[in-house]
Amino acid sequence: MNSIIMKAMGGDMDPPVPDEGRKLLALREHLTKLGVRAKMRENYSALMVHHPENGLPVWVFVGYGGAYYSWQSAEKRHPVSDVVGAARELADYLYR
User: Fold this and answer.
1) For the chain, what is the mean pLDDT?
2) How far is CA 65 from CA 19, 26, 88, in A?
3) What residues pair up with 62 in beta bridges, in sequence order?
4) How does pLDDT run across 17-37, given as a tens digit for each residue?
5) 83-95 vs 19-33: helix axis angle to the nearest 10?
6) Tally of CB atoms within 10 A around 72
7) The dihedral formed by the CA atoms of 95, 30, 49 and 39, expressed in degrees to the nearest 10
8) Could you tell me if 25 and 18 are in contact, meaning their C-beta atoms sit under 8 angstroms apart?
9) Overall pTM surpassing 0.85 (yes/no)
10) Region of residue 52 (phi > 0: left; psi between -120 and 50: alpha; otherwise: beta)
């Protein structure tokens, strides 16, 4: 449910963030520490990572049953259990 519907039903809280969304938020946090700009999609289904030069974003998803971050049409992936390594690999991908 969106926040407007929740408020209309008398609830002041936003709906909970899905598990994939929490994983993407953790990745965004580590990317930010590396100086990489990233923005969460409103429904927490994807992370839009800004490319430093050409302006085309890279979309990152959690896939493979919630086990991997994936990008570049799922040609690139990294285990969600290693969020620091995933952030570094993604930053390397963007800046190579």
Assistant:
1) 86
2) 11, 17, 22
3) 69
4) 788 999 999 999 999 999 999
5) 60
6) 12
7) -150
8) no
9) no
10) alpha
What's the alpha-carbon Rg for the chain, to the nearest Å? 15
Q: Which two tokens stand for residue 41?
A: 């999609």
Beta carbons within 10 angstroms of residue 56's beta carbon = 7
DSSP state of 41: -
CA 51 remoteness from chain centre: 14
Q: Can you list the alpha helix ranges (DSSP code H) found in 1-96? A: 3-8, 19-33, 83-95
What letter would DSSP give residue 79? E
Q: Is the pLDDT of residue 9 over 90?
A: no
CA 93/CA 18 separation, integer angstroms: 27
First to last CA, the chain: 40
